[in-house]
Amino acid sequence: MIAIQPYQEAQFAELDALWRTVFPDDPPHSHATVAIPQKLAVQRDLPLVAQEGDHVLGTIMAGYDGHRGWLYKLAVHPRARGCGIARALIRTAETALADLGCAKVNLQVRDTNHDAAAFWAHMGYAVEPRISMGRQL
C-alpha cells in the first residue's frame, strides 16, 4: 500500500536518488542537497513523499506564501508510473495548501517538457498568459 506523508529526514538518500533520476539536468540550486534543507527551514510539512514499505516512489513539494501556492518537484520513479502516484501527491498537496487558506496554485514547467505540460493539463492546470521571470541571487 502506498502512503503519502510529510518527508522524513531518513528518506533523504532515496529522495535525492529519485530527483537525480527524474531531473538529471537540474541546476545545482535545485538539487536535493540544497532544496530540502531550505524547504524544511520554512515549511517542514510541505515536502511530501509517496512511500511503499521502506521505498520512496514519489515526491512533491508545495509552498504557500500567504498569497499563492506553488507546486514543485513532482517526481515519480519511472518503474512506478501509471499507478496514480502523481495524482495522489498532487491532490494531497492541493488539500494541504487549501487547508492553509490558499485559493490559487501555480507551477512552472520547462517549455521543452511537453509530456509534463500535457500531464498537468490533464490534471486541470492551464497555461496562463504570464511571463515567468527569475533572477539568481
Low-confidence stretches: none
Number of domains: 1
Averaged pLDDT: 95
DSSP summary: helix tally: 4
CATH topology: Aminopeptidase
Range of helix content: 25-40%
Largest sheet composition = 5 strands, mixed
How would you write the strand order of the largest sheet?
1-2-3-4-5
* Annotated CATH architecture: 3-Layer(aba) Sandwich
Shape: globular
How many beta-strand segments? 5
Order of helices and strands: EHHEEEHEH
* First and last CA, distance: 42 Å
CATH superfamily: Gcn5-related N-acetyltransferase (GNAT)
What does this protein structure show overall?
With 137 residues, the protein is α+β, with helices and mostly antiparallel strands. It has a single domain, classed as Aminopeptidase (3-Layer(aba) Sandwich). The chain is 34% helix and 23% strand. The protein has 4 helices and 5 strands. Strands 1-2-3-4-5 form a 5-stranded mixed beta sheet, sandwiched between helices. It is globular and about 40 Å long.
Task: Name the descriptors.
137 residues; Aminopeptidase; 4 helices; 34% helix
Please provide a brief summary of the model.
This protein is α+β, with helices and mostly antiparallel strands. Helices cover 34% and strands 23% of the residues.
